[in-house]
Amino acid sequence: MLRFLCFSFGIGLLLMGIMLGGELRLFIDWPSLMMTVGGGFIFCYGVHSPSALNEALRMANGSGSVSPADAQRYDAVLETFSNTLIASGVIGTLIGMVNMLANMDEPKHIGPACAVAILTLLYAAILSGVVINPLRGRLKSRVDGVMASSKGPSATLPASFFIMISILLMTMTVLEIS
């Protein structure tokens, strides 16, 4: 119950931040969402079967103890899924940047292309950092008789934020030039 309450409160805070800064509809872009989520699933399926991902998500969200071997197997699947979500977000960002730079002579096309670029990375960061990585932590904390050791924070998410800040700075520079 506490997990559901905290997750709901976190989503509420994200939505409040969106609503205070603008309209919710500005943050919904179906091509970006399809590119990020679809790419995350498809690329993950290239490494692990759909049933392996489904089982890993179910086990991570379940209760009770998990054997160390199962935890290691499920964590590998969830790590792949998290990484493919981030990779799809970065690829979508690069596609959006290419579209933006290709339309520099038409200023009205720069904004939508920039939005696609930033939203794909936003979706990837939310799904990987707010959904998948906490599930991985939950899975590791339920290993039978072993205190789950953490390798420390993942370098993938901070790297994604660095890329996002770099893209924002490039976008601001490009908009000042035109």
Explain what you see:
This protein is mainly alpha-helical and 178 residues long. The chain has one domain. It has six helices and no strands. It has helices spanning 2-21, 30-45, 50-61, 68-102, 107-141, 156-177. The radius of gyration is 18 Å and the shape is elongated. The model has no long low-confidence stretch (mean pLDDT 84).
* Inertia-based shape: elongated
| Total separate domains | 1
Helical stretch tally = 6
Please provide the count of β strands: 0
Q: Beta fraction of the residues?
A: under 5%
Helix content bin:
over 70%
Rg to the nearest angstrom?
Answer: 18 Å
**Most strands sheet:** none
Tell me the distance between the termini.
52 Å
Poorly predicted sequence stretches spanning 5 or more consecutive residues: none
**Class from helix and strand fractions:** mainly alpha
* String of helices and strands: HHHHHH
Please state the average pLDDT score.
84
TL;DR of this structure?
The chain has 178 residues and is mostly helical.
Topology of helices and strands:
Elements: H1 2-21, H2 30-45, H3 50-61, H4 68-102, H5 107-141, H6 156-177
Helix pairs in contact: 2-4, 2-5, 3-4, 3-5, 4-5, 4-6, 5-6
Defining key terms:
6 helices; 178 residues; mainly alpha
